Amino acid sequence: MSITEKFGDNADLLWQSFINKEGLTPTQAHQFEQYLCMLRDWNEKVNLTRILDIPDIIAYHFQDSMQIVHHVDFTKLRGVCDIGSGAGFPGIPLKILYPDVPFILLEVNNKKVAFLESVIEQLGLTNIMVSNLDWRTFLRQTSHTIDLFMARASLQVDELIRVFKPVSPYKHAQMVYWASQHWQPGPQEEPFLVARKTYSVGDQQRSYAFFSDQKPQ
């Protein structure tokens, strides 16, 4: 069954444009299609997202998750953690792009955990796990190999920067926060902010805020 048969007229052209623009392999394109279908199906029983139109899912979920690759070389990462993964953004799209990089999806909502685990199984993703620990417990009780933490529409920055506390096993990792164009750091966050990068998604301007325990020289 084609995308048009599933989602209506013009969906095929839109989907092919997405595949071409992002340079997806046939396997990756199929995984994104499976993910799209599961997102729509599960949303009827689990509140995953308010964004359900195909163009908006592509722009504001898939591509918004994927644009970080223009600023981070994922091929060099030994481990990535998606904080407050929710319906899997940005973790699942990035895992599809980089199947060999280990990922942890951090999510406390049991229904969303079930969805994420089902997506991982259906898409055949490997070297990826879902953790239902809250953020503070994760920092206290785990010691995974993680180079990059990602937070998109989850916790506030003053909570996220707990990762840089002296007792944290992840204090030397990098953190990237999906921010609005007008977001400004508070006095707690400012010492850890090392870079801001702006980007466009759909008709919106947004930015990435990069944090580290060491300022660049």
Describe this protein's structure:
There is one protein chain. With 217 residues, the chain is an alpha/beta fold. The protein has one domain: Vaccinia Virus protein VP39 (Rossmann fold, 3-Layer(aba) Sandwich), CATH 3.40.50.150. Helix content is 36%, strand content 19%. It contains eight helices and seven strands; from the N terminus they run ααααβαβαβαβαβββ. It has a seven-stranded mixed beta sheet, covered by helices on one side. Strand 2 (103-106), helix 6 and strand 3 (128-131) form a beta-alpha-beta unit. Helix 2 packs parallel to helix 4 and helix 3 packs antiparallel against helix 6. The longest helix is centred in the N-terminal third of the chain and has 17 residues, at 26-42. The mean pLDDT is 93.
